[in-house]
Structure formats: C-alpha cells, structure tokens
Amino acid sequence: MFKIFLARYSERLSCAVKFELKSLSGKDGQGCRVSNRLFYLSIPPNIFVDVVRCASLKASSTSGWTRVIVEKPFGRDLESSSELTRSLKKYLTEEQIFRIDHYLGKELVENLSVLRFSNLVFEPLWSRNYIRNVQFIFSEDFGTEGRGGYFDHYGIIRDIMQNHLLQILALFAMETPVSLDAEDIRNEKVKVLRSMRPLQLEDVILGQYKGHSKGAKSYPAYTDDPTVPNGSITPTFSAAALFIDNARWDGVPFLMKAGKALHTKRAEIRVQFRHVPGNLYKRNFGTDMDKATNELVLRLQPDEAIYLKINNKVPGVGMRLDRSDLNLLYKAKYRGEIPDAYERLLLDAIEGERRLFIRSDELDAAWALFTPLLKELEEKKIAPELYPYGSRGPVGAHYLAAKHNVRWGDLSGDD
C-alpha cells in the first residue's frame, strides 16, 4: 500500500504550501499492515525545504517507507546546489531523496548501456582508438512561449546542458560497472564527471533567437516574450566542447549543443568514428573523407531509432559508393506503446530503484564542471550571438566544431 502526494505551490498565498493528496485507496493503510508514502515536489525551488520539512515532520509514514521525488532545478550553481542538499538532508536521508531527470527515463537512454555492454560489436570500439568525437544534440522548434520568467533565471546551460545532456554523457562514457546495481552504476558516472575538465569560455558558444519573418508568418524574438526582462542577454542556445581526461577518452571531443527556436525538434547522440587508415576507396570519396565516416546515431526523440551509417557500393556497373543506414526504427519494429519517461521513473521510485536518479556527489561533480563558466559569463555579461527563429542556430557553433576538427552530424543533410 502506498500513497502519492503531489505538492503544488499556491499562487494566491505568497508563503503558503498546499498539499493535494491522491491515493490508491480511500483510506491510508486500509487493509494493509504497511503504508508507504511518495511525495513528488514539482514546485518552485525556493520552497523545496519548507515542503520537505512539513512532509517529514507531519506526514511521514509510521509503518513503511517515505520517499521524496525532487524535480529540477537543483540549484543554480555548486554553492546553491550543495546548500539545497544540506538542507534536505536535515529531514531526509540520501536514500529517501530521488532527484529526477526525466531524460534518464527515455527508452533510448535506457538502451544505451544495453547496446554497449551486451553487443560485442560495439564494446571494443568504445574508446579513443576508434571514436573521433561524440555529439549530444538537443533542439526545440519553439521558443519560451510565456515561460520566459522561469527560463531567463536559468538559461539554456542550466536548463538542458548541465543536467540532461551531461547525465547522458556520463552514461555513455562510463566504464563497465561491477553490476547493474544502482550504486555501482552511479559510482562509474561520478568517476567520469570527476575526470572531466571544467568548461573553458573559449570552448563555449552562446546564442539567443531573434525575430524572423517567413512568408506571411512572423516569429517573435526571445525578448519579445512579455515574461522576459527587457534587454535580457540570457542564452537560448549554447554549444560546448568537453573533454574527459582518462585513458579511454583522452583527446576525444564531446560536443554538446542545445537550443530553442531552431529549425527542428530532436534529441540524439551521434558517435562519429575515425577514418579507415589507408582507405582503399578514398579516391571514390574525393578529398572529403568525412563523407566516408561511419556514424552511430541514437535518436531519443521524436521517432526513437538507432541507425548506423556505413559505406556501401551502389548496385550496377562501375564502382560508385554511397553512405547507407542500417536502421532500427522503434515504431516499425516494436508495435507496443513506448512508456513515457516519467511513467518509468515514477515506477522506479515506487520500487526503490535508484539507478536512473541522481546522487548528491554526482550532482556536485556536475555543477563543479559548469559553475566557473557560469560565473564568468555573468560577471563579464557576455552577450549571446543572435540567430533567426527557425534557423540552425548561431554561426559560432560551426566555428567551435571546426576548431576541434568536427562537423555537426545533424547538419549534414543526409538524415
């Protein structure tokens, strides 16, 4: 027996917290010896601690477990995040706290470790010896649309890169865990994060979308949103190059790109492999050997898919080569409905499965990478490069990729 408590903020009462209780039974503990309680806090961060204190002191289960799901943001930097963790731990143990990042519940993210650790064809290739670069791409084809007040306080780096994309990167790059136990997996993720260099300003590009007209339709600029402060320089786009200083990944660029109001909606991981040494067919590809690069793509959304780009001979007389896809499209292969990420994670919290939830030391390591950069951006008040609504983002992102001898895979035009 368990109850789910949804904590919501009451806008009418400036300092009031209202609990809306939704249970599986009309009465707590009816017909059961044990009563469990799960609190889901999807509320402003400034009242996290007040709600947790009330829940812990007044509404904890006396016969079963009590757990709290905390929705991001987990602070704005390392200091505020650490303070939030310290405050929560006055009333809860680490085992009771479930920091939720819904991207970790997506089907393709779940499948990432399966793809790597249960397929012999991939695991030997998963290192600097064969992988040239890895790209984590998140794009939305809409702007803030009335949510500018929240977004302007955090920006695209805090909203997407420091949590969603960095968590996926850690899962991608970690060493083989001892087991599938939650602590073993989270231990390996922490090792990856602690092996990474803090982000440098020269390896980051910022952008902000501006108004754009296409035919008879006009698209607003970020600062046209009435909930956004006038003259805001909060970035709605960012690209960054990160590096992991360990034996497996030394020298491999891990590129992140995230933005709003872009030309398409997608989230994907793109693994670009090294060129074939002494390629016998290099004359068939011309001088641009990137056209011959093998690439593994995991599309998280929309239309979940895994595909591998390989070189193939076009049937017929002569030797004409083409890059083709070995494609696993989920909706074609699996007819059943793919569960929503939140469904999966809520069920995990009920079962006490912590594998896809973020541990406190993991959160500290993630913030340690981004906090120096974020402080420098705010102190220097660096203005973002403007890009048109519905475009492919600021030109600076291409220069950043070129600096590290990389091309963005989502801009190749052959997907």
UniProtKB/TrEMBL annotation:
<dbReference type="Pfam" id="PF02781">
    <property type="entry name" value="G6PD_C"/>
</dbReference>
<dbReference type="InterPro" id="IPR036291">
    <property type="entry name" value="NAD(P)-bd_dom_sf"/>
</dbReference>
<protein>
    <recommendedName>
        <fullName>Glucose-6-phosphate 1-dehydrogenase</fullName>
        <ecNumber>1.1.1.49</ecNumber>
    </recommendedName>
</protein>
<keyword id="KW-0521">NADP</keyword>
<dbReference type="InterPro" id="IPR022675">
    <property type="entry name" value="G6P_DH_C"/>
</dbReference>
<dbReference type="GO" id="GO:0009570">
    <property type="term" value="C:chloroplast stroma"/>
</dbReference>
<comment type="function">
    <text>Catalyzes the rate-limiting step of the oxidative pentose-phosphate pathway, which represents a route for the dissimilation of carbohydrates besides glycolysis. The main function of this enzyme is to provide reducing power (NADPH) and pentose phosphates for fatty acid and nucleic acid synthesis which are involved in membrane synthesis and cell division.</text>
</comment>
<keyword id="KW-0560">Oxidoreductase</keyword>
<keyword id="KW-0313">Glucose metabolism</keyword>
<dbReference type="InterPro" id="IPR019796">
    <property type="entry name" value="G6P_DH_AS"/>
</dbReference>
<dbReference type="Pfam" id="PF00479">
    <property type="entry name" value="G6PD_N"/>
</dbReference>
<keyword id="KW-0119">Carbohydrate metabolism</keyword>
<dbReference type="InterPro" id="IPR022674">
    <property type="entry name" value="G6P_DH_NAD-bd"/>
</dbReference>
<feature type="domain" description="Glucose-6-phosphate dehydrogenase C-terminal">
    <location>
        <begin position="114"/>
        <end position="408"/>
    </location>
</feature>
<dbReference type="InterPro" id="IPR001282">
    <property type="entry name" value="G6P_DH"/>
</dbReference>
<dbReference type="GO" id="GO:0009051">
    <property type="term" value="P:pentose-phosphate shunt, oxidative branch"/>
</dbReference>
<dbReference type="GO" id="GO:0050661">
    <property type="term" value="F:NADP binding"/>
</dbReference>
<dbReference type="GO" id="GO:0004345">
    <property type="term" value="F:glucose-6-phosphate dehydrogenase activity"/>
</dbReference>
<comment type="pathway">
    <text>Carbohydrate degradation; pentose phosphate pathway; D-ribulose 5-phosphate from D-glucose 6-phosphate (oxidative stage): step 1/3.</text>
</comment>
<comment type="similarity">
    <text>Belongs to the glucose-6-phosphate dehydrogenase family.</text>
</comment>
<feature type="domain" description="Glucose-6-phosphate dehydrogenase NAD-binding">
    <location>
        <begin position="31"/>
        <end position="111"/>
    </location>
</feature>
<dbReference type="GO" id="GO:0006006">
    <property type="term" value="P:glucose metabolic process"/>
</dbReference>
